[in-house]
Amino acid sequence: MADFRFVESDHSYWLGERRLPSVTGILEDTGLANYKWSTDYHKERGGFVHKATELIDRGTLDWSSLDPVLVPYCEAYAKFCSSVNMETLIISEKPLYHPQHLYAGTPDRLVTMNSLTTLIDIKSGATHPATALQVAGYWDLVRVNLKIHISKAFVLYLRDDGTFRLTEVKDLRRNLQVFLTALSLVRGSLIVEQWKEENL
Predict the structure, then answer these.
(1) How far is CA 108 from each of CA 91, 128, 189, rounded to the nearest angstrom?
(2) 12 within domain boundaries
(3) Which CATH number does the domain housing residue 163 bear?
(4) In sequence order, what are the residues at sequence separation of 6 or more whose Cβ sits closer than 8 angstroms to the Cβ of residue 136?
(5) Which domain holds residue 159?
(6) Pairing between β-strand 12-15 and β-strand 4-7 as defined by DSSP bridges
(7) Total number of domains constituting the chain
(8) Model-level pTM?
(9) Please, are residues 176 and 140 in contact by the beta-carbon 8 Å criterion?
(10) Closest by alpha carbon to 105, among 16, 26, 166?
(11) What tens digit of pLDDT does each residue of 17-76 get?
(12) What is the C-alpha to C-alpha distance for residues 110 and 107, in angstroms, rounded to an integer?
């Protein structure tokens, strides 16, 4: 059985020698989401926010060492944690792949919250409609790998003023259908390009 691995340096996912399409890459390649406006600074900041919130979950964040830019986002996350009944952290920033659909991604959090198994995607940038599709892709990844029922899914927006907003993602099955259709389009375009290279 081929080994699955995540390469952090270029954010790529591999199953043996096969590179798997990522959840965000699928959305971008099909024009459902546009991440080109996101500068290297924003991407780096988002990565640091995610790492810092992981440390908050573990109770090991050294607040005095934080870059001042990151402080309000971490404060927002801490406020969120103290305002909800988050009982158990099941997974945190765990790369996964789908054994049937052969795509991959890294869901942010799976927790029990108010006695419900809950998927949470953390954002430190602007809202976008395609986030619902992204969450649906993660939802299916978690379901097939952990074999558990997920009751709720949310996007947690952390803001630079120290506040947060929690938005529920509804109609996950329909959003998953759209996501899987996008995956089919990505695969189809690759097949077409390969044919063109071989025959034209």
Answers:
(1) 8, 17, 29
(2) no
(3) 3.90.320.10
(4) 153, 169, 172, 173, 175, 176, 178, 179
(5) 22-199
(6) antiparallel
(7) 1
(8) 0.91
(9) yes
(10) 26
(11) 999 999 999 999 999 987 665 667 777 888 899 999 999 999 999 999 999 999 999 999
(12) 8
